[in-house]
Automatic annotation (TrEMBL):
Domain of life (superkingdom): Eukaryota
Recorded GO MF terms: G protein activity; GTP binding; metal ion binding
EC number: 3.6.5.2
Source organism of the structure: Onychostoma macrolepis
Family annotation (InterPro entries): P-loop_NTPase, Small_GTP-bd, Small_GTPase
Protein family (similarity comment): Belongs to the small GTPase superfamily. Rab family.
Known cofactor(s): Mg(2+)
NCBIfam families named among the record's database cross-references: small_GTP (TIGR00231)
GO BP terms in the entry: protein transport
One Pfam family linked to the record: Ras
Protein name stated in the entry: small monomeric GTPase
Reaction(s) the record says it catalyses: GTP + H2O = GDP + phosphate + H(+)
Enzyme class of the recorded protein, top EC level: hydrolase
Record keywords, A-Z: GTP-binding, Hydrolase, Lipoprotein, Magnesium, Metal-binding, Nucleotide-binding, Prenylation, Protein transport, Transport
Length: 210
């Protein structure tokens, strides 16, 4: 049985995975969750989230039910200490920036440092470049997002909470990673007898920072 099949057999469908949306104020965390949960985008003036709340969603991954409890946090600086408290028992984190805001992209490094400090080592992390529908206002190239994600060993997608582009995809990817990482996979031997001098290429890290 390959590792993915082994993970599927052992996966406990009663688990609920705490998943947290983080990132600067205004990058579109609430909009992304509303699009995912209700399939709609509410245009108009921006109303910053105050406090914290969650939405429960059940996703089907290869016939397995994966339960996500998705927490939408407030991005404003004054609420950061509250957000930190929620990192500890999170199994997945979606870190958003806005492709039209250089500061939101630059700040993702600080967010990743915080995540490293407060979250569990095996947390599943996705970096999302949101507002990808705003092509004419874009200041962060897709390649820059991909490069940063590679540097930190996290998964990357560009999304649009407005059009829905890659929104379901982002949460499905998280759910698949949670299935893959939820079981302790057997450690593969690094060497085979026939290639004593040739180490196997490093397996990709399962979860969290590589
Ligand atoms: N064009 C476009 N606008 C978006 C998108 N996502 C969010 N917005 C707009 O950006 C503004 C901020 O969105 P929010 O979802 O409230 O941002 P937030 O990250 O929840 O902000 P905080 O709650 O303060 O942390 C709103 O005016 C949204 O309508 C997107 O994908 N495309
Ligand atoms: Mg919000």
């Amino acid at each position: 049985m390959d590792q993915i099949s082994a993970a599927r057999v052992a996966y406990n469908q009663d688990l609920t995975h705490k998943t947290i949306l983080v990132g600067d104020s205004g990058v579109g965390k609430t909009s992304l969750l509303v699009q995912f949960d209700q399939g709609k985008f509410i245009p108009g003036s921006f109303s910053a989230t105050v406090g914290i709340g969650f939405t429960n969603k059940v996703l089907t991954v290869d016939e397995l039910k994966v339960r996500l409890q998705i927490w939408d946090t407030a991005g404003q600086e004054r609420f950061r200490s509250v957000t930190h408290a929620y990192y500890r028992d999170a199994q997945a984190l979606l870190l958003l920036y806005d492709i039209t805001s250089k500061s939101s992209f630059d700040n993702t490094r600080a967010w990743l440092t915080e995540i490293h400090e407060y979250a569990q080592d095996d947390v599943v992390i996705m970096l999302l470049g949101n507002k990808s529908d705003m092509a004419s206002a874009r200041v962060i190239r897709r390649e820059d997002g991909e490069k940063l994600a590679r540097e930190y060993g996290v998964i990357f997608l560009e999304t649009s909470a407005k059009t829905g582009l890659n929104v379901d995809e982002a949460f499905m990817t998280v759910a698949k990673e949670l299935v893959r990482c939820s079981v302790q996979l057997p450690v593969e031997p690094r060497f085979h007898l026939h290639d004593v001098m040739q180490p196997e290429t490093e397996p990709s890290s399962c979860c969290g920072f590589s």
